[in-house]
Specification:
Shape: globular
Radius of gyration: 20 Å
Distance between the termini: 26 Å
Strand order of the largest sheet: 5-4-3-12-6
Structural class: alpha+beta
Largest sheet: 5 strands, mixed
Helix content: 10-25%
Order of helices and strands: EEHHHEEEEEEEEEHE
């Protein structure tokens, strides 16, 4: 993310057009960055310390805000994102409506556009929701059911990649090896390969599975103890 500290929000778009292109001059000041970080944290977007530096954690929080508020997921605190963020109508990052056309009844819903997952009970109540990391190149939109696939077990408490990683609380729902699991941890020290604050962004790509936090993986493990419908939305 590039912040140009001396340009204010008033210069949102320069009316300089050359060869049919508009030159943008989006930038916010250090004080505005601090205000944005404060606001992102209050909206459950996890921006981290309020230091006026739009670093990796703030960028990830901005992506979560942009995805929740139907903005282009650039991670940039430009004037458009800043204005939406400061508006009274800004939507929270951590509480989102279940996508339309995801069906009814007990189910797990994944939005690949929002990088988000919802666990919905039989009454339509959201039991839990949170950010994910997936890879749409491997997991296609559609309806699935959790369980054994391709002769492989439905659930593996301490699954492995066959090398240096554990995929804890693995719950399979799509052929052949696709399932939910905690962000992979190193066998050597138990640490995750990346931080929880990258969940809900488009900065990482899994090898096909749905990565979630340790707490979410434990909830999914219990929620999908039996055959459970999993709806993947584009």
């Amino acid at each position: 993310m590039r912040i140009l500290p001396k340009l204010g929000l008033a210069a949102t778009v320069l009316g300089l057009v050359a060869f049919g292109t508009t030159v943008r001059a989006d930038a916010i000041t250090v004080s505005q960055t601090k205000a944005a970080q404060t606001r992102l944290n209050r909206l459950g977007c996890i921006a981290g310390p309020v230091d006026g530096q739009a670093g990796a954690m703030t960028q990830a929080a901005t992506v979560r805000f942009q995805s929740a508020n139907v903005l282009s997921q650039t991670g940039a605190l430009n004037s458009t994102t800043y204005a939406r963020l400061m508006a009274a109508t800004a939507k929270r990052c951590d509480i989102r409506a279940v996508p339309h056309r995801s069906g009814t009844g007990r189910r797990i819903v994944i939005s690949q556009t929002q990088n988000w997952v919802w666990l919905v009970d039989a009454r339509g109540t959201v039991v839990r929701q949170g950010g994910i990391i997936d890879n749409p190149r491997f997991l296609k939109a559609g309806s699935y059911v959790s369980g054994s696939k391709c002769g492989r077990p439905a659930r593996v408490r301490k699954n492995t990649d066959g090398a240096s990683l554990y995929l804890n609380n693995f719950v399979r729902f799509a052929p052949c090896g696709v399932g939910f699991h905690q962000i992979p941890t190193y066998k050597s020290n138990g640490r995750q390969i990346h931080a929880d604050w990258l969940l809900g962004t488009n900065y990482k790509a899994s090898h096909g599975c749905i990565r979630v936090s340790a707490a979410m993986s434990a909830t999914i493990w219990s929620f999908a103890a039996g055959a459970t419908r999993v709806v993947v939305m584009p």
